[in-house]
Amino acid sequence: MELNKKEIELVKILHNNNGKFISGENISDTLGVSRTAVWKYIKNLRKKGYIIESVPRRGYHLVEVPDKITVTEVLAGLKTNLIGKEVRVFSSIDSTNNKARELAKGGASGGTIVIAEEQTGGKGRLGRKWYSPPYTGLWFSVIVRPHLPSNRAPFLTIITSLVVKKAINKLGIEVLIKWPNDILIRGKKVCGILSEIMATPDVINTAIIGIGINVNQDSFPSKIPLATSLKQVCGHNVNRIELLQDILMEFENYYNRLKDGCYRDLVTEWKNSMDILGKEVDIVAGNEIISGKVVSISRRGELVLIDPDGNKHLFWAGDVTLRQKD
């Protein structure tokens, strides 16, 4: 659904008018075209899925946009300075993280966003596949060039999980963060985060942060029973573009806090967003399974566990499952 230059400008004019009517004369003056040309652009936009109301002597206003993610729609309401500096949208690719890495190696600037309507090889942690059907979810990656100390790498996942939690909370949906990178609703996974770091031993030069959110799926394959979508929870479709814009704007806020060195505050907020503290768990780390009680999250973001023998273990990452009570 490609728009020409004038159609893109017209969409921006309608967006910026915040749902109010704007006259055809004002539009034609702004675009520098005739009223007849304005009407032609309106007709073309309607064919492409835009619902635009027209009333004699009042003009036009934008009622609804098509449920397809386009660069035009993402940028039309995005109020950021860095994140979304460049937006790339693909109808179907193997993985947004793969494409983002390719672009980053080619010199793409920090703040570039890679979005796919469908991923054929979406990636989760530990090489797992991420179910990414077309036109239902948000599958995207953010390229950042933070130049942070390498030991601060976990904070990129920390801020991303806080950002997604905050954006979903605004929909009236309560979520919890499952350490270290999953977002849960009522015990089921609605979002996964996969951060891939390009760093020297001392400095994080580039990071690719992949985010997959189940938005408007009605159901899931039987092989992934512990998944849910925002639609399944709230009972109606969620506007994917508005949610994406909200996430990107929140991401910029949290990314700036990270760059400013607000590590302690970020860890405290992250820890308060979990329900794992005080729980008995099993953690798969490498080839080991370690059991014990989660007693804290360290100021560096590590999970702190005490095993039955009283030994303390620190984990940067791992698969965590709650132990069933006997």
Describe what this molecule looks like in 3D:
Helix 6 packs across helix 8. The radius of gyration is 22 Å and the shape is elongated. The chain has three domains: 60 residues, Arc Repressor Mutant, subunit A (Orthogonal Bundle); 201 residues, Bira Bifunctional Protein, Domain 2 (BirA Bifunctional Protein, domain 2, 2-Layer Sandwich); 43 residues, SH3 type barrels, CATH 2.30.30.100. With 326 residues, the protein is an alpha+beta fold. It has nine helices and 15 strands. A hairpin with a 3-residue loop joins strand 9 and strand 10.
Output the CATH class name of the largest domain: Alpha Beta
For the biggest sheet, the summary is: 8 strands, mixed
User: What is Rg?
Assistant: 22 Å
Give the strand tally: 15
Low-confidence stretches: none
**For this structure, what is the CATH homologous superfamily of the largest domain?**
Bira Bifunctional Protein, Domain 2
CATH-defined fold name of the largest domain: BirA Bifunctional Protein, domain 2
Distance between the termini: 56 Å
Order of helices and strands: HHHEEHEHEEEHEEEEHHHEEEEE
Q: What kind of assembly state do the chains in view correspond to?
A: single chain
Secondary structure: helix percent:
25-40%
Please tell me the CATH architecture of the largest domain by its name. 2-Layer Sandwich
Mean pLDDT figure: 91
Report strand %.
Answer: 25-35%
- Our count of domains comes out at 3
